[in-house]
Design brief:
Distance between the termini: 32 Å
CATH topology: TIM Barrel
Mean pLDDT: 95
CATH class: Alpha Beta
Structural class: alpha/beta
Largest sheet: 6 strands, parallel
Shape: globular
Radius of gyration: 18 Å
Order of helices and strands: HEHHEHEHEHEHEHEHEHHEHH
Number of helices: 13
CATH architecture: Alpha-Beta Barrel
């Protein structure tokens, strides 16, 4: 099996990056290759990425009544890049859009809210963001919001609020993926209890290998798998290994191995969190152009062609198709 050819043939689906923050700040353009950060369109294409979820992350200084406007600024930054780079980038709101992008050699951009703060406790705002193209929502960042507690809220042990329950149900009705990365443990349990569709963790690793609060316990991993969902293995060094300065590609592959053993190969994907962390990097994975090394590593570890394609993007495509359409 030729890993390079296998990578080129696969739909590679990355479930999380924070690059739009850099674009909005004027530090980079998606269409221009840069040596800064982790990705741009030229590097995404070189790395063989078919679908990239772009997070609309609203930082806490915009709370409580500036979240929607800041999310719209990030959305506008994406749409400007879309207009300027129509030969490289396309908006994907359905699975068929991703497949068409693969055929045309483009990157399918999928929009996500990272945290429900941008909704400002209003399901009408949710429906408006859906019409603007949002197809994934992480219910919280690390803090408490109107929907639920984030993973940093350790005193209350609260899960979904009444609004959070309404939000999950409306997301299911519309066709928006529910993302539990950053959510408190009680919130994860609530989502798994009430969800009527597969849920995802866009960028989280296994707590058993790296006991960071943002990683998922075996019980959580198994719960996501039981719903038919997917966890995106992330390249954040401190989520790969306790000493982030020692994080390597081998450590990422070890995370994949562990999740496959715990959840099954149908429930593991990729969620880089590129441009969401700075400083230390995973050795062997300095940016998105190194993704083919991950494929080579999976082949070396004995994964079949079918299994590799599932991990690279097939599993997220299955959930995207089932939930979004």
């Amino acid at each position: 099996m030729d890993p390079g050819r296998l990578h080129r043939e696969s739909i590679v689906f990355d479930a999380h990056c924070d690059t739009l923050q850099e674009v909005l700040a004027g530090k980079r353009r998606l269409g221009e290759r840069s040596e800064e950060g982790h990705l741009d369109l030229p590097r995404l294409r070189e790395g063989g990425v078919t679908a990239q979820i772009f997070a609309l992350f609203v930082s806490p200084n915009y709370f409580p009544r500036g979240g929607a406007r800041q999310a719209l600024r990030l959305l506008d930054a994406f749409y400007q890049e879309l207009e300027e780079n129509a030969d490289q980038l396309t908006l994907a709101t359905t699975a068929s859009d991703v497949e068409r992008a693969k055929t045309e050699g483009k990157v399918a951009g999928i929009l996500s809210l990272e945290g429900a703060e941008a909704l400002e406790s209003d399901l009408g705002v949710l429906r408006a963001f859906y019409k603007l193209g949002v197809r994934n929502i992480g219910l919280t960042w690390n803090l408490r919001n109107a929907a639920a507690d984030g993973v940093d809220e350790t005193r209350s042990s609260s899960g979904l609020t009444n609004f959070g329950l309404q939000l999950v149900r409306e997301m299911h009705r519309l066709g928006i993926m529910v993302d539990i990365s950053h959510l408190s443990p009680t919130g994860v349990r609530d989502v798994l209890h009430v969800s009527e569709a597969p849920v995802i963790a866009s960028h989280s690793n296994a707590y058993a290998l790296c006991p960071h609060r943002r990683n998922l316990t075996d019980e959580q991993l198994e719960g996501i798998a039981s719903k038919g969902g997917v966890v995106g293995v992330t390249f954040v060094p401190n989520f790969v290994t306790e000493d982030g300065n020692q994080a390597t590609l081998k450590g990422v592959l070890d995370q994949i191995d562990y999740m496959v053993k715990t959840m099954g190969v149908d429930h593991v994907g990729l969620g880089s969190d590129f441009d969401g962390f700075f400083g230390a990097k995973v050795r062997g994975m300095k940016d998105v152009t190194h993704l083919p090394r991950l494929t080579a590593g999976l082949v070396e570890r004995g994964y079949s062609q079918e299994q590799v394609k599932k991990i690279l993007g097939g599993n997220f495509m299955r959930v995207f198709r089932e939930v979004v359409g």
